[in-house]
Design goal:
heterodimer, A: alpha+beta, seven-stranded mixed beta sheet, B: alpha+beta, seven-stranded antiparallel beta sheet, two-stranded antiparallel ribbon, 2 helices, 11 strands
Chain lengths: ~140, ~160
């Protein structure tokens, strides 16, 4: 009888220890690695891949810096060409549709960019708004 | 024998948890909360009195372009993965690479989460939120613009 109780205690404590370790390991593995939980970011991911092999060279990025806000999308596109993909259309400013396009970066001498670094270019009604580097 | 078994299991699990927490801590260095974030508003919108300022011993809770939302002590949540900053007036700013050239300002709140934040993570709470959307201008200043409802909803409902 006593032994039975002891065994149960041992099992419970072992289970608890295993459970704690498991939770800890899962916590360390960033939730983004876990596909089922990463799904909540669907709206910030590529909706449509346009040109899978498109990569920006550093001189293209430098030229993009010279583009003024409000310049046409075609002017921006003449520098950076077709994007890797588009993000979901969104509206940030009331009544103004915005478009976001994602570029991958070439690993060249000037930009020792991380392979995970991307460039997001934003337009509002075909006018250039700005860009941001996306590290994810 | 059985007791030492349990002891070593617990010790191992504890050590494992401790080292993982330590690693996690190293991987995400804590941000300096004393850093003062400053935003230059567009010249024609830079009113003398702004949220967080004081006049005759009373504090200003809202100003030009703010949408006041009765939060009733609830939290607001990061609409995307991004980063938050606190300015000298106690307003929290949220920026994200998902929406280049925009900043979102939250004034009147407390329990701020400053630094890198994940989408849907609580970033502040309070009784009344003063919300403003700022768009970067060509001259580097920030203009208050009319925000779309969807973005505010995303911030209020995780």
């Amino acid at each position: 009888m006593m032994q039975n109780i002891n065994f149960r205690t041992v099992d419970l404590k072992k289970l608890l220890a295993i459970g704690v370790s498991l939770i800890a390991v899962l916590y360390f593995l960033d939730w983004r690695i876990l596909p089922s939980l990463g799904a909540k970011h669907a709206d910030t991911q590529c909706q449509k891949v346009l040109k899978s092999n498109a990569k920006l060279k550093s001189e293209q990025v430098l030229k993009l810096l010279t583009v003024q806000q409000g310049d046409s999308k075609s002017k921006v596109r003449s520098i950076v060409k077709e994007p890797y993909c588009k993000l979901a259309n969104t509206t940030v400013r009331s009544g103004v549709a915005s478009e976001r396009e994602v570029y991958l970066l070439d690993q060249d001498a000037v930009f020792e960019a991380d392979a995970n670094t991307k460039l997001v270019v934003m337009y509002e009604e075909d006018g250039y708004v700005g860009y941001r580097f996306l590290v994810r | 024998m059985a007791m030492s078994g349990i002891g070593s299991w617990c010790a191992r699990a504890g050590l494992c948890l401790f080292s993982i927490l330590l690693l996690k801590g190293c991987a995400q260095p804590s941000t300096d909360k004393t850093t003062r974030f400053e935003v230059n508003l567009a010249k024609n919108q830079n009113w003398q009195l702004q949220p967080g300022d004081a006049i005759a011993g009373y504090s200003i809770s809202g100003g030009l372009g703010d949408i006041s939302i009765v939060l009733k002590g609830n939290s607001i949540y990061a609409p995307y993965d991004g980063e938050t900053h606190l300015d000298k007036r106690g307003c929290l700013y949220f920026e994200t690479p998902d929406i280049p050239a925009y900043l979102f300002r939250f004034c009147g709140l407390h329990a701020h989460k400053i630094g890198k934040v994940s989408a849907k993570q609580a970033i502040a709470k309070g009784e009344i939120l003063q919300f403003a959307a700022l768009r970067r201008q060509a001259d580097g200043t920030w203009a208050i613009v009319e925000p779309d409802k969807t973005l505010i909803e995303r911030t209020l409902k995780p």
